[in-house]
Amino acid sequence: MTETPPLWASESFWKKTAIWVTAGSFLILVVLTFDSLSQTTAGSKRVPGYAVINKKIDYRFDKSVNKFMPVIGEDEPLFGQALSEEDAKGLVDLGKKTVQSKNCMNCHTLLGNGAYYAPDLTKAWLDQGWVSPELREDLMIKFLMDPEKNARTFGSNRKMPNLKITEPEAKGIVAFLKWMSSIDTNGFPYNFKTIEAEE
Amino acid sequence: MSTGGLTAVIQNASGCLDKARNQWQKFNTWLELDSSHLSPGRQLSVKYFTVAVILFFAQILFGLLAATQFLAPGFLYEILDFSVNRMVHINAMVVWMLYGFIGCVYWLLEEESGTEIVGLKLGNIAFWVLTAAVTVVVLVYLLVQIGPGKDSSLWLINEGREYIEAPRWADIGIVVVILIFFYNVVATFSKGKWSGIAGVLTLDLVALAGLYVAGMFYMTNITHDQYWWWWVIHLWVEATWEVLVGVIMAWSLMKLLGVKRKIVEIWLYIEVALMFGSGILGLGHHYFWIGTPEYWLTIGGFFSALEPIPLVAMVVHALYDAGTHSFKNSNHPAVAWIIAQAFGNFFGAGVWGFMHTLPQINLYTHGTQWSASHGHLAFFGAYATINIAFFYLAIQHWRGNVWMGGGMANNWRWKWALGLLNAGVLGMTIALLIAGYEQSFIERAVGGSTWGGYFDAQNHPAFVSAMAWRLFFGLVTAAGFVLLVWDLMTIGKTETRKAQVIE
Ligand code: HEM
Ligand code: HEM
Ligand SMILES: [Fe+2]
Fold first, then answer.
1. Over its length of 503 residues, how does chain B's per-residue pLDDT go in tens digits?
2. Count of domains forming chain B
3. CB atoms < 10 A from the CB of B193, how many?
4. Residue numbers of B between 131 and 160 with CB closer than 8 Å to A
5. Is any Cβ of chain A less than 8 angstroms from the Cβ of B68?
6. Mutate to test the interface with A, among B78, B81, B140, B369 (most CBs of A within 10 A)
7. Which of A23, A155, B130, B344 has an alpha carbon within 20 to 30 A of B318's alpha carbon?
């Protein structure tokens, strides 16, 4: 008198469901991964090529898409020197490696991910804390190389430690930050007022 | 003269060593643990558990240091900076949980397969190699800390990517050790017998180990970097770890409560379907703002919003099974921690995760203490709890499968440890939640996330007092931990009754 159990109580039904659901989801993820990676290679619409550091960058609300968008403007070479895409990549790469070696992400966030002890770096290049576009490069280099003496604590007593960043490394970091600020991050952060904005 | 000095030093050192050995022996006699009660596989398992407890201690210690720095930024400045303490805090967590999971799997492997573990010697070597590597990595974190912006720093010191900071050489070592572990699992099941639990476990371990490899590459492009980084972090904690815990939970419900195998295995398949079905594409909730295309706002928001469903199912499963067996079980502390797991997982991951997973909300909460609030309750609730349950299971058998039901000596200890640890983490979670809300308003909504906005939020009295409460509840957590360790070392020591038999 063995009755077959109803479908919802059958082991083999749920086993098959688990396998198909997992395989299906994973397959969709793989397809989307190919698409996302190709839409975000350096030099794409969303993630500009590294030579974007030769240009002026701003971040403004765009009514047509109803979100904040990076705005890439006229020539504004970093440290007064226009670089080829290859050289720009080299400089940004040095910056990225330094950011990892110095463990910046365990105090700061980058693109909003990391630690919460220090400000987000996504749009650090555009921050009004650097006073004016003319002073910015110099202030950033000085700060990175000796953050204790050039501390920017905004009344918080929280000081960045000296991470023994060399001048070339500091320049690399600035290039990396400038390049990162040009990425289309779907409007994060919202309502950010840049160093270029008129009061 | 100089040789005389040298002999004195050697004598001194060997004297110290003798003293240490003496103390160690005394400590062991006091512990009264008898490993002959354990099968060879379980002797290996308790080694993993022991290191897990030590690393759990390191996690709490360095968490307290980092929390103190929020209130007193000068504390250990340029000696052990916040970044160092935080890195050790979260790395110790990831590693102790992995140690715990490996211990759990070795614990159930022989019983589930019905045979002795196949590569015991290899497993032991892997354990010592891994432990030596972890020690070196931590010492380098603490003593070297940072390097120049070169590949060599990433290979030897740290990779600077949150949670998976371990330098490349250690990554490779970890993969090798995990392969040995995996071999042991598969070979042992193949020699003995396979089961539903064994099948899910094996496939899940393949995915878990494979995902780690996605985090081993350097990329200049930060968008691609974070894309793969989240594959590891998210697909670990919201997919493969979650299923691993499902497996461990299924097995322990069978053993502790006497639930039928058929029932737990059907539940397990359902949970796998729901967890992977929502969690794999739920990955998209980390792709809102890193430069990836807009379709992730929809896909990530939708699928991650479904992720709480399997977590509800697990609560129902655990409580229903415990209820139908009238909570009659052979190990009260372990079952209490398993119930804590069901709720902790549901609240920490399910509720706290859901609250900030829709892009419209995440735009303001992203990268604030909100995330830390969720991170604490979720990791503790889902993964610390289940490991602690197994620590209790292990100690019970280590003492010769003694009684761990009602009327144990010093019953209050495990209850207070349970209460203090849970209250401590919950307290920290609430404090961080308040800080997170405050940041969402003041830094994100009003301040537009500029540096000025950030510091306005950090200096706000609501934030500062939240940080003070977090430190207070951190100390409560630490007190609970001390009590837990004391309890684990003493529970069942004077017990003469055998464990209750559950059928
Ligand atoms: C046990 C399972 C889980 C654990 C251990 C966990 C842990 C974490 C941690 C530690 C973070 C912070 C990551 C960082 O450092 O940037 C995080 C972020 C996040 N989690 Fe979870 N989580 C779990 C489950 C979930 C679930 C089920 C959901 C959704 C329903 C969720 C939603 C989120 C979201 C939206 C973020 C991003 C926060 C941000 O934008 O900053 N999590 N999770
Ligand atoms: C004594 C208790 C603890 C203290 C004082 C403490 C303190 C901290 C601090 C200060 C941070 C850095 C947050 C930031 O970047 O602003 C942190 C991060 C973190 N802690 Fe703890 N912690 C404790 C216990 C735990 C426990 C028990 C767990 C989990 C089992 C845990 C998991 C985490 C996670 C996942 C993060 C990263 C969160 C994120 O990035 O969103 N902590 N903790
Ligand atoms: Fe996630």
1. 456 677 888 888 888 999 999 999 999 999 889 899 999 999 999 999 999 999 999 999 999 999 999 999 999 999 999 999 999 999 999 999 999 999 999 999 999 999 999 999 999 999 999 999 999 999 999 999 999 999 999 999 999 999 999 999 999 998 899 899 999 999 999 999 999 999 999 999 999 999 999 999 999 999 999 999 999 999 999 999 999 999 999 999 888 888 889 989 999 999 999 999 999 999 999 999 999 999 999 999 999 999 999 999 888 888 888 888 877 888 999 999 999 999 999 999 999 999 999 999 999 999 999 999 999 999 999 999 999 999 999 999 999 999 998 888 889 999 999 999 999 999 999 999 999 999 999 999 999 999 999 999 999 999 999 999 999 999 999 999 999 999 999 999 888 888 888 76
2. 2
3. 11
4. 145-151, 153-154, 157-160
5. no
6. B81
7. A23
* Cα gap B120→B259, rounded to integer Å: 30
Q: A50-180: which CATH architecture?
A: Orthogonal Bundle (1.10)
Q: Which of A46, A176, A186 to mutate to test the interface with B (most CBs of B within 10 A)?
A: A186
Tell me if B470 sits within 8 A of B71, measured CB to CB: no
**What is the least distance, in Å, from the CA of A94 to any CA of chain B?**
6
Flag whether B266 is in a domain. Answer: no
Residue B110 in any domain: the answer is yes
Taking the Cβ of residue A158 and every Cβ of chain B, the question of whether any pair is shorter than 8 Å is answered with: yes
**Nearest by CB to B220, which of A96, A163, A186?**
A96
- Token representation of residue B205: 């371990």
Q: Is the CB of B89 under 6 A from ligand 2?
A: yes
CB-nearest partner of B272 from A22, A97, A188: A22
- What number of CA atoms fall less than 13 Å from residue B388's CA on the CB side? 31
B51 Cβ partners below 8 Å, 6+ apart? B96, B99, B131, B134
The boundaries of the domain holding residue B478 are: 348-503
* Inter-helix orientation angle A11-39/B196-213, to 10°: 10
Please report where in the chains the tokens 């022991």 appear, as a residue: B50
